[in-house]
Design brief:
The chain is α/β, with parallel strands linked by helices. It has helices spanning about 10-20, 35-45, 70-80, 95-100, 115-120, 130-140, 170-175, 185-195, 195-210, 245-250, 265-270, 285-290, 295-310, 320-330, 340-355; strands spanning about 1-5, 25-30, 50, 65, 85, 105-110, 125-130, 145-155, 215-220, 225-230, 235-240, 275. The strands form two sheets. Strands 4-3-2-1-5-6-7 form a seven-stranded parallel β-sheet, sandwiched between helices. A five-stranded mixed β-sheet has the order 11-10-8-9-12, covered by helices on one side. The radius of gyration is 20 Å and the shape is globular.
Amino acid sequence: MILLGSTGSIGVNALNIAEQFHLSVDTLVAGRNITLLNEQIKRHNPKCVVVMREEDCSLVHHDDVRFGEAEILRAIEESDSNHVINALVGFVGFRPTLKALECGKKIALANKESLVVGGSFVDTSRIVPIDSEHFGLWYLNQGDRKVERMVITASGGAFRDWPLEKLSTATLEDALKHPNWSMGQKITIDSASMVNKLFELLEARWLFGEGEYDALIETKSLIHAMIDYTDGSTTAHFAHADMRLPIAYALMGKVETPIVDRIDLSRVGALEFRSIEVARYPIWEIKNDLLSNPARGVIVNAANEAAIERFVRGEIRFVDISAMILRAYETFTSVPESIDAIFALDDEVRAFVRGIRC
């Protein structure tokens, strides 16, 4: 496999699956956790390693070390492996997805931004989703029953139980206190604002086609997806939140070996569901419009990434992230008609958000 984002949680789980099922690792692409990367190199012996920064190359224990986006693309092109796991975070994962498809490779996709910003230019027939929500939808949708609605679940993020009047005082430290698990900085902030779930709905729209999609909060994160059928029945996908399960299916197609422990519902006792309310998650205001106009996802993503950068630097409040996204969504109404237009619009939206005064 070619593993993009090897030192993140998904990358680590992918390498656990590689080790469990004796799968070879051709290429590792990592960020700044060089200590973990060197441990992965020693254990999996990849042919090629790519890091993001030139200054990190000398710290990597490998004979073929490269750096930067161009080298990620070259590594994908040169590799004989037919499987790419794209677990990069953010817009940076879009070009590698396009390159992998151009090279005829199969993609196990965790980089939701690839579909959010450019779903109309991505051949989803060669993509297998490894987000737990989309895996759950796929898992449930294997029969021939007619689907009425697809639903994914959300944890609610760090502020799901906060009094609304306190949100304007939320700090970066507060936003990173996820109630259910530990994740990277950006995705944890996206979980708190509900942008992550908005993106997952848009991703589902590209993966499964036109239809009705929605989300709700399930506080224990044991149900990842549900499907309502036209006969009035509903099925739900229960599983412990463990990325090894969707990764194993993505790499091998069929899995008959236990990957995660079965959920004991008698010990769970009860589940709690909540609606996603605009008062707490203002970004939810554009959910229906975005699903009806999915090509506008690039606007939301660019505004979100630029706003998060400002939040992390302490320039804006947490509540300003959603406000800036909504303002950008109102300001930019064009739909990109080419891949080059996506990158141009991305630049324009980021510049706009960076210039907003609070």
